[in-house]
Task: structure prediction
Amino acid sequence: MAEQVKLTGLTEQEAVERRSRGQGNNVRPKTGRTYGDILIQNTFTFMNVIFFLIGAVMILLGLWSDAIITVGVVAMNVVIGISQEMRAKRQLDKIALLTRPTVRLVREGKERVADPDEVVQGDLLIVTAGDQIVVDGPVIGSGTIEVDESLLTGESDLVRKVEGDQLLSGSFCVTGTAMFRAEKVGLDSYANKLTQSARAFQTNTTPLQRDVNFVVRILVLLAVIYGVLFAISFTLRQVSAVESVRTAAVIIGMVPNGLFFMVVAAYAMGALRMSGRGALIQQVNAIESMSNVNVLCLDKTGTLTANRIKLDEIVPLHGRAPESVRGLLAGYAASVTAHNRTSEAIHEAFPAPPLAVSAEVPFSSERKWSALALNGQAYVLGAPEIIGPALAGDAELDQAQIDAWTDRGLRVLLFAASPDVSALTSANGVHELPHALEPLALLTFSDELRPEARETLDLFKKAGIALKIISGDNPHTVAALARQAGFPAGIKMLTGTQIDQLDDAQLGTVIEDTTIFGRIRPEQKERLVETLRARGHYVAMIGDGVNDVMSLKKAQIGVAMQSGSQATRGVADIVLMNDSFAALPAAFLEGQRILNGMKDIVSLFLTRVFYYALIIFGVAVVAEASLFPFIPAQGGMLTLVTIGIPTFALAAWAKPGHARRRILTTVIHFVLPASVTISFIGILVYVFYLFQVPFLPSADLYSTVVIDALLAVPRSALLTFLVLSNLALVVFVEPPTRFLSGGDEPTDDRRPTILAGLMLLVYAAIVVIEPARRFFQIELLMPADYLLITVVVLLWAIGLRFMWRTGAFTRFLGLTVERYHEEPAAESTKI
Result:
């Protein structure tokens, strides 16, 4: 009687008192950086602080237009970056609320579903298969469960827990049902730390981010070298503070800190688009990472099928009366404590009251069977090929009939009995099948195929994704369902038993041509994913059960269904809301869209940086360092008109399709020819107009005002050439026709070309409108000068197109880089 009172739990009044004493589990996990962190870390970056300091010095020196441009562009990046990250944080907050685990709480003898926040120290909680354990405490009562502690220990073996054993938050119940008492809650438990780790702001880098970081580090080094050299030169020549500060601003502007912002912006746009398709992104760079996926592993149950099964037929064996078998099955299904879809389907077909159970072995994907001891008999339900070897010597199964059922896509289970119950009460937790089992009946169950499965799988194939179906069911059953979903006949299959007989090298060879993997245990799923990764594949894994947790973690991208277990949602990178399986192909294509858009954006950014550096160096060699070709106001306008606005548009307009080049390859193919030719012609244009100046000023002899006046025409001529050539690159990076293609393959999208034309009109307006021209310190040239520069740009464009098409530049460097006309057009899929 005392035990019964103890298991009624706390009263609501006791719970309130304990919470007032600070014994509540009311510490919510952080979903990322705080709003203050986002504000500070976006604003006070190393590069931003330098720009702000230079801007402040410019204001002190009276260079208001230069200061506004220098600080204004950075401030715009900061504001947009902060707004994007705050939007991402709000999205993560919503995800945390939607996927936050619930608990089954017992108070005053009543069980109810509650939020983990409601738990206080001393509460009684019930856990069952698939539940996340959110606080720490000992098992009480007679329940037995098997727990996955892999997230805590790294060991994938299930741990059996009985009365007195300690449960740790952050682990997951895989089989069985038990009650435990909450002892460590709030900050004292592992749960909040684990949840925070699963959903917090992530800094894991993707291939795109690593490439961008690599290039930017090189450019930072280049800017530092330039800065030191010009500082030495200006010190020796006693250049004025005004000119030194402006030169420093231009040199620092060589570092494309806007690239980081564009990566974040592209991720945010992708996440926003995917949220409208029913996919919530839990890892900020997961969508871009999806573009690299070439193998998708599916768990049939809950993914290919609708996670619902129906009892199709019962075939009694050895002359058993159908009524007797149905009665035994009804009692078995009603009495199991660890319910699953199989027992629920039987119970729905044959409802009955529960019976007294003296021993129980819950079903697990490791064993492929479950058992109960009822009235001195052991009853076993499981896969025929697993239970078959334990049947009595004279018992035989009609294998031909079983094969016929599985070929129709039906799941077949064997129901058997034995008077030997000793294996079900193993003291060391290792359960074995009872001896001399007598077959009672064969049961068939039908899976409901998801209505969108066929169309979705077709979209995967069009996106270039190889599919692997991994299931714990009979491979013939899985293959039959796969054929219903559109897979061709004759697809290769492999069983878990066969996998155990293969070493890693043999499995690596076989896995490439195999589509169906049946009777697979959880650790075998993990091994399959590891093997695919070892062979150079980028793997995504979809799952919904606790047995999928480790394989989801091993894959580069883990995807969970919303209706799946709390465990899978906790470790997944992407959660498919409303179990919308059709949303996933869109995520793959969205990743391709991001990567393709960033390829164009990086091309424009890096071309500008490289020709900037080369022109600065070239002018210093041909003329002298004091005849600096750029001023901050003009540089900021150039960046905004030719890079800032166009790259935003390119990110928004990017299309899906296989990206055949990584960023560093793009640098060789697109950026180097463009930047070298622009810098060479730009230096010639600048020097041509420089030599028309009555006398060449020197920074150590003349004031900044005089130098600006004398260099106004050469700088404006160079600026005009750079604006025209950069806008031509916007067209070249997304050519609307084959005639204009060379740097990239042609598209049918004319919007970038139209945008380039609009930006040209913007520049023309700045030149024509006197206040704008004066603000950006641009000199109005003669019509003949604009005509000459336009002709030069046209000749440059023709020559650059020839270099791209023939590969003359890369051949000169001794490099082999693919050219657009040697590759088939990337296939894109409309969804």
Remarks:
- The chain is about 50% helix and 15% strand.
